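JOB MANIFEST
job_type = single_chain_structure
chain_count = 1
residues = 292
[input]
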Amino acid sequence: MGASVYPRTFRDRLAAGTPFLLDGATGTELERRGARCDLPLWSARALLEAPELVERIHRDYAEAGAEVLVANTFRTQRRTLARAGLGARAEALTRLAVALARRAIGARGFVAGSIAPLEDCWRPDLVPDDAPLAREHAEHAAHLLAAGADLLLVETQNTIREAVAATRAAVATSLPVWVSFACDARARLGSGESLAAALAAVAPLAPALVGVNCTAPEHVASALPILRASGLPFGVYPNLGGPDARARDASPAAFAAHADAWLAAGASGIGGCCDTTPDHVRALGERLAPMG
């Protein structure tokens, strides 16, 4: 954003009207740079073993032009950490993750706290019952608030039930909330529920944005009219993974070319998910430059 005085809050930045640039992948970028990301901790392992690399990746995205960095909190919920005997460190590791992103972005951007599905992003059948959903998402959201996140990103949601629970917990912090769904080519969640129904379910909770992520770039097209019809600001950050990845041109230029359609549909924010890199984000920024 070219203004000499940068917006104080994420809500102010959203109200400015020009699209913002989100960062790209953290977990797959850690793997690409040689960090251990084995389960159950996945990307959270780097907070224990390579925090300097986490910060370096954040800095690379900031240098590529990202205004919003997503803290490495995708797997710092107590449930995940407990599987490695680290449940008691949920708040401390969440605070560390936010601090690393904050140091990288400084005063020229914002830190989003990631809130992921409690179980597997691709296994909607594993979504917990309502009581643990409410309790555990509330705890994670409270940790992110205490850590100083500027907004909460409820992402890669695969069922309406968990998306509503996580969004409700996030909104209760009074931070702006962005809720994003992983969709297929028919704009359906992993559960088979429609994106339209998911947006209708979270809309009464008044999120600041909605969107889609971890979706193949070519599948975003079916989601765009649904996102636009919701009447809410929306963001798009697809992945470069999936079963058809080898058949796709994964170059930064090819990825960024898809963004023209996202922006034409009215996207408020764009970025990348799994397997995107700082080069992909830089290419997206070049698409945004004429609008800034």
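[summary]
The mean pLDDT is 94.
Residues 10-291 form a domain with the TIM Barrel fold (CATH 3.20.20.330).
exit_status = 0
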